[in-house]
Structure formats: C-alpha cells, structure tokens
Specification:
- The chain has helices at residues 28-44, 94-105, 117-127, 172-177, 215-228, 245-261, 272-277, 284-306, 308-319, and strands at residues 13-19, 48-54, 76-79, 111-115, 132-146, 159-169, 181-185, 191-195, 202-205.
- The chain has 321 residues and is of the alpha/beta class.
- Strands 2-1-3-4-9-8-7-5-6 form a 9-stranded mixed β-sheet.
- The longest helix is centred in the last third of the chain and has 23 residues, at 284-306.
- The protein starts with 12 loop residues before the first strand and ends with a helix.
C-alpha cells in the first residue's frame, strides 16, 4: 500500500469521473473536475487516484465506454452534465447511463456528485421530478445561503458563491416536497446544491463549482459565435456577477455592435484583454473549499469503515444485540 502524504498508510482515494459531455480524453468537462479534485487533494495532503470514463451516448449503455465492473469499487464518483437535447429530462440519452450508475453503485460508492443534467436525471429517477425550461439562461456567479450544515459546507460562510450556466431547473419546492435536502439556495429560490438524507451519498449540483476562472467567459464567447452564425435568435446576456463594471461596459458595447452587424468576423476583435483583467473570481475560494470538504468526507468515511469498532457496532445493530 502506498503511503499518503500525511503518513497514515491508507491507499489513495479512488475517484471516478463519468463524462457525459464527450468520450474524448481531451474533454474540457473532465479536465475541470479532475483539476478541482487534484487541487483539493493537494490542499488536504491526501492522495487521490482519478480515473475518467468518457461515455459515448451513441452506443448502448453497457458498451458506452464506462468500466461498469470498476465503478462500484470507487470511493467517490462525479458524473458530469451534458448538452441538453430535449425539453424533458426523461427523453435524454444520458438517463439510461445515470440509471445504471444509481443501480450499480448503490450502498457501495460512498458519495456520488451528479452535476447539472445528470443531477436532474438522478432526481427524476430517484424521486420522479420533472425538469423545467427557464425563460432566460441562468448564467453568472450567484450568492447562495447555506440552509443545511454538514460535511460539504464545513468552514464555508453563510453566503456561498457558485457559478451557474443552464437553461433548465428543478424547482426548490419540488425537492423539498420529496424530502431532498437543500444545502445551497439563492434568494430567488434557485438552488445550487442538494443532497439525500445522509448529506453525502447522493449530491446534486445545479451549479458549477468546478468552473475555472475563464470558463463562463469562454461559454459567453461560444454563445456570441452561435448568434453570429445564425444558430441563436438573440444576443446572449452577459454573465451576472462575473465581470467588473468597466469590463461589463466593454462587453456590452461589443455585443451591441455584433447585434447590429451580425458578422462572425467581428469575433476576431473579441476584447480578450478586458476579459482577462475584468473577471471577478471571488467564487474560487468557495469552490476549493467544497471539493476539499468532499474529499475529506470520503477519507473520513473510509477511516470509519476501517475501524473494527465500527464493524462490531454495525454487527450488533443488525443482530439486535
């Protein structure tokens, strides 16, 4: 067994990332999550062995690129979102993959984080909830109140900043109705993080704590490109709570020029310098803390499982002694 940096002798935490965006090893989604986990492991001084599985949604679930035999042996699992194709989540190809993940990892993997579309899929499968289309894309960095304290929110302030980038939602009142715990919720009722009863086994994230400093900017530029190419009807709104006032003025002027001319060539003059200097990245500290808390919870769970006193207590409980 390889020693961890803290000298405990416990092996590395085994973390899996199921990538529903792309089967490509160069997928940006898996890179962001892997980077977040690696940074958290370094921060805690624990070892983490990360394995990514790129799911090919054009293939049958059993042969889509996921090592189904390996998944149940992991300590923790992250399931990324994917590009929505249909209005109803139950029509998404990813639903079958999430369904099998729920079945194969039940009572085996300590914690699974379901992100964005996969969170909606898991909530639909577990609780029968439906996904609703928002009138406007929720994009930017938003403050959320901590409604449920637990291992994932340890050390966080009462207000936590989380990036969002989505067209769909599951209403907070519906999650409450079926007994899902809302952990982070904004003043307008939009939630970012929720969990099952135990606060760890099933983690549902509508937000994107894995986003890097310039991810929202890259997505905004992508949406501008889609508008210029005639693939979208309207110029995208600026991400909220993400740019300084000066940077917002620069981008609003650029967006208005693109709206008037609708010329893809204009994107060659995208104001990169203003972007680099104008990002307010205050959410990054909260994101780092979240991933560190998740890894710490996995490590603590593994330590408890290795304690023979825990095994004896469980045995007594099961036999009624």
């Amino acid at each position: 067994m390889t020693d961890t940096p803290d000298g405990t002798g416990r092996g590395a935490l085994r973390i899996g990332i199921v990538d529903l965006f792309s089967p490509s090893p160069e997928s940006w989604a898996r890179y962001m999550f892997a980077s977040s986990v690696e940074a958290a492991a370094d921060r805690l001084g624990v070892a983490a062995d990360i394995t990514a599985y790129g799911a090919d949604m054009t293939r049958p679930t059993a042969d889509c690129g996921i090592d189904w035999d390996e998944l149940p042996s992991l300590d923790g699992l992250i399931v990324t979102g994917g590009e929505p194709r249909y209005r109803a989540v139950e029509a998404e190809p990813a639903l079958a993959v999430v369904d099998r993940i729920l079945t194969d990892t039940a009572d085996r993997v300590t914690s699974t984080v379901y992100s964005c579309q996969s969170a909606h899929a898991a909530l639909h499968l577990l609780h029968g909830l439906s996904r609703n289309r928002l009138p406007h894309k929720r994009q930017g960095v938003f403050g959320h109140r901590v409604h449920a304290r637990g291992p994932l929110t340890a050390g966080l302030s009462d207000t936590v900043l989380v990036p969002h980038s989505r067209w769909n939602t599951m209403p907070a009142q519906e999650l409450r109705r079926v007994g899902v715990r809302l952990v982070l919720e904004a003043e307008d009722g939009a939630w970012s993080l929720a969990t099952g009863d135990d606060g760890l086994r099933h983690v549902f994230s509508q937000g994107h704590p894995e986003y890097l400093r310039e991810t929202l900017l890259s997505e905004y530029r992508r949406d501008l490109r889609r508008y210029a190419a005639g693939e979208a009807d309207h110029v995208p709104d600026l991400p909220q709570g993400y740019l300084t006032a000066d940077a917002q003025d620069v981008f609003l002027a650029f967006a208005e020029k693109l709206r008037e001319q609708r010329d893809p060539e204009l994107l060659k003059s995208f104001p990169d310098r203003a972007a680099a200097e104008g990002i307010d990245d205050g959410w990054l500290a909260d994101s780092r803390a979240f991933f560190a808390n998740w890894l710490r919870a996995l490590d603590d769970s593994r330590e408890r499982s290795a304690d023979p006193r825990v095994d004896m207590a469980l045995a007594r409980r099961r036999t009624g002694l």
